Amino acid sequence: MKKETNLTEYLYKIQPVRSELLTEGPTPEEQAIIEKHFLYLQELTEKGTVILAGRTQNTDATSFGIVIFQVESEDDAMKIMMDDPAIVKGVFNSELYPYKISLFGSYHRRK
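-> structure tokens emitted (111 positions)
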């Protein structure tokens, strides 16, 4: 018999350490790290861990990104966040929150 796991949802919020990243663009080093960040989240999405990831489109100090995901424990959630290449390399600051999705509709991107 397969063991049932109880997955809990979490959200981590990210913001650039260097505010000019949003207004002037990333340095070549930051760009390479951001590409690794995207690939990391893409892999977690394909595994079914990440539910949603994205960012606001404003470029002032209030801009932020979020990653909503599900894991078995808060320790697992912290590991997911702290293993993000953009956190490891100091391109983004991050904060972890317990989270619960209350409504989830079908999404179709409009062109």
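Residues 74 and 98 are 8 Å apart (CA to CA).
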